[in-house]
Amino acid sequence: MSPISRIARRPALRRALVPGALAGILLLTVLLGGSAGPPAAAAPASAPPPQEEPGEAAEPAAAEYDLELCGACHEDVVASFGRGPHAWIDSAEWAEEHGPSFSCASCHGDLTQHVEEGGGTDNVFAFGPETTPLAQSGVCLTCHGDEHPRFLHSQHSRAGVTCATCHDVHHPQTASVSLLRGSQTALPPRPMDDLSLATRTCAECHSAVLTQFEFNERHRLQEGVMECQSCHDPHAPSPRGTLLAAHEQGCVSCHTDKEGPFVFEHGSIQVEGCTACHTPHGSPNRHLLTFQRTAELCFSCHAAVPGFHSRFTLATVCTNCHSSIHGSNFDRFFLK
Ligand code: HEC
Ligand code: HEC
Ligand code: HEC
Ligand code: HEC
Ligand code: HEC
Ligand code: HEC
Ligand code: HEC
Ligand code: HEC
Ligand code: HEC
Ligand code: HEC
Q1: What is the pLDDT along the chain (336 residues), one digit of tens a residue?
Q2: CA of 157, closest atom in ligand 3
Q3: Are residues 158 and 62 in the same domain?
Q4: Helices 62-71 and 21-33, interaxial angle, to 10°?
């Protein structure tokens, strides 16, 4: 079954539909008028009522048929759908550019039989257990494939997480935030008020990671200053399992002074990236270091140090002398 089809083209359906067409347009108008309003980028679904074009037969777009038709039996679903960006798509424009009109069928497949039989679960693509996660994400990717071309290779997709696991197409929490689901369960830790909707979505499954942001030294996630996706892309595979490698880790997009290139690079950053020395989420150690004491951190890689270093102990703050530890343009030992 092709996920994209155009139910309103079916003559049988069309006959059944036309009498309700005007009501459908009215319903659409009410739905959209009552919504929180589309973002400037999204075209509002204000397809001109066909009646206003005298030369043409009254032929409302498929989406409008759907709202009327499906709404008769799925009132709540249709109403909440009207608050999200898919309902703002101008189906006439869409049809012009992409062929089939944008409608419920764009995601649920050809619904002719479903409607003719008055419902049931057999002839509809329902995003339930009877379809594989791959097939479910595949439906979304027919349109969003350019945005997220590598999703199917991501850790998420391979673990059976689908687009609709994180995005709630039918029940937008707010009009603007990418239809994210947020969390369904009450999350145990701390006040959640300032956590962004996106972070809550992640925390639903990665609550242990959220806990790491409770340390004193941490990135300011709880305040809503950052979000999980400030560092991670939930839509893409990552070579190191978690993120992009070394300098691509994304850290330097904010910490630009650490990016270099330096005349004298610290070898470890080149090879292992920032996480060779820092814990990204949160840590009891100052500066989010992986060791409590700086010397321990240095000695974890450097067995050989100059002889005069023998007077130093684990309590020595090596960076008092090696102050440009992230790289230097002046000194190969990072002393300035
Ligand atoms: C952008 C894709 C998409 C479009 C367009 C879409 N749906 Fe859905 N629909 C879904 C997904 C995904 C689910 C699975 C449930 C979920 O993720 O919350 C679903 C679930 C449903 C369900 C069953 C679950 C429930 O909440 O009762 C119904 C009924 C439904 N959709 C009807 C419609 C109707 C009617 C339209 C047109 C107004 C429509 N859908 C348009 C993606 C879509
Ligand atoms: C005559 C009533 C009726 C009409 C019209 C109707 N449906 Fe349904 N639909 C049902 C019934 C009944 C079910 C089964 C609900 C259940 O078993 O939970 C259903 C189930 C569904 C499901 C979920 C299937 C599942 O396995 O959970 C989707 C999606 C759906 N309909 C979409 C649509 C769309 C889109 C339209 C408009 C093109 C539409 N329906 C029109 C009655 C209708
Ligand atoms: C693990 C959760 C998760 C999964 C799975 C997921 N997304 Fe997202 N998606 C997000 C988050 C979080 C954002 C918000 C990104 C931001 O605000 O920068 C987002 C943003 C988006 C956006 C808004 C524009 C953009 O690219 O930032 C689109 C469109 C989108 N996702 C579509 C999809 C599609 C299609 C799939 C499946 C192929 C999918 N998403 C799978 C979490 C997810
Ligand atoms: C037939 C094409 C089509 C299909 C299928 C489709 N979408 Fe969309 N989607 C769109 C269009 C068009 C927009 C509006 C884009 C815009 O306003 O920039 C959109 C918007 C979105 C947004 C909001 C983007 C933002 O910037 O906030 C999300 C999230 C999203 N879709 C997720 C999904 C998911 C999840 C599925 C599968 C269940 C899906 N889409 C299926 C065409 C589609
Ligand atoms: C529905 C549950 C779920 C949600 C929601 C979710 N994830 Fe995941 N995530 C998983 C699963 C399952 C894996 C794969 C498990 C594994 O490989 O250890 C995973 C893997 C990851 C990984 C790779 C971990 C590793 O060890 O390689 C990162 C990073 C990640 N998720 C970040 C996020 C972010 C960021 C969000 C929110 C935008 C998010 N996840 C939302 C379930 C989820
Ligand atoms: C400051 C950037 C940053 C932020 C913000 C961030 N992460 Fe991470 N995360 C990383 C890096 C870097 C790694 C890789 C750590 C490593 O390789 O040792 C990682 C590892 C992970 C892993 C796999 C290893 C583990 O600890 O389980 C998961 C899952 C994960 N992050 C999820 C999340 C979630 C969920 C959020 C939001 C609550 C989040 N991250 C916020 C940078 C970040
Ligand atoms: C979205 C921007 C952003 C990204 C991406 C980011 N950071 Fe940060 N980072 C900050 C901000 C802002 C602070 C200051 C936190 C505060 O005000 O409490 C900070 C603080 C830190 C600190 C502690 C500084 C101190 O004085 O103790 C370290 C270490 C750090 N970040 C390392 C990293 C690493 C490693 C990565 C990549 C895994 C990363 N950051 C990614 C914005 C970012
Ligand atoms: C070889 C270990 C090492 C690596 C790799 C490393 N750092 Fe650091 N970083 C340190 C040490 C040690 C400190 C504490 C400096 C001090 O004691 O004053 C520090 C401090 C910081 C601070 C807070 C103080 C400041 O200078 O702003 C930030 C932010 C930071 N690092 C970001 C990064 C980023 C981003 C990367 C990756 C590009 C990175 N670090 C890689 C060892 C490292
Ligand atoms: C993750 C491993 C790692 C850690 C931790 C680490 N380094 Fe390095 N460091 C290296 C590597 C690799 C080189 C490059 C070695 C080479 O070129 O011979 C290097 C080079 C240096 C050099 C220059 C040596 C030369 O001959 O040019 C100095 C000085 C140095 N590190 C000091 C420190 C100090 C001080 C700390 C603790 C704050 C530290 N390093 C932490 C891996 C590490
Ligand atoms: C009092 C200042 C000072 C302190 C404190 C200090 N160093 Fe150094 N370090 C130096 C100087 C100066 C050099 C360059 C020696 C040379 O010219 O051969 C050096 C060189 C090094 C080198 C490069 C060795 C080589 O020849 O490749 C390493 C590694 C190193 N220090 C590690 C450490 C560690 C680990 C600590 C903390 C336990 C530390 N240093 C504390 C001054 C210091």
Answers
A1: 333 232 222 222 222 222 333 233 333 333 332 222 222 222 333 333 333 333 333 334 445 667 788 989 999 888 888 878 888 888 788 888 888 888 888 999 988 899 999 888 888 999 999 999 999 999 999 999 999 999 999 989 999 999 999 999 888 776 567 888 877 665 555 556 678 888 889 988 998 998 899 888 999 888 888 888 888 889 988 765 444 433 455 788 889 898 888 999 998 777 778 888 999 999 999 999 999 999 999 999 998 899 999 999 999 999 999 999 999 999 999 999
A2: 5
A3: no
A4: 90
**Cβ atoms of residues 144 and 124 within 8 Å:** no
Centre of ligand 10 to C-alpha 261, Å, is 22
Task: Burial-class residue 215 by CB neighbours within 10 Å (0-12, 13-18, 19+).
Answer: middle
Separation of CA 187 and ligand 1 centre (Å): 27
Nearest CA to ligand 10 atom 41: 318
- The number of domains in the chain is 3
Domain that holds residue 267: 249-320
* Residue 302 within any structural domain of the chain: yes
Report if residue 122 sits inside a domain. Answer: no
Q: What is the pTM of this model?
A: 0.88
Looking at the structure, tell me whether residues 219 and 262 fall in a common domain: no
Cα of 146 to ligand 1 centre, how many Å?
Answer: 22
Q: Report residue 165 CA to chain centroid gap.
A: 10
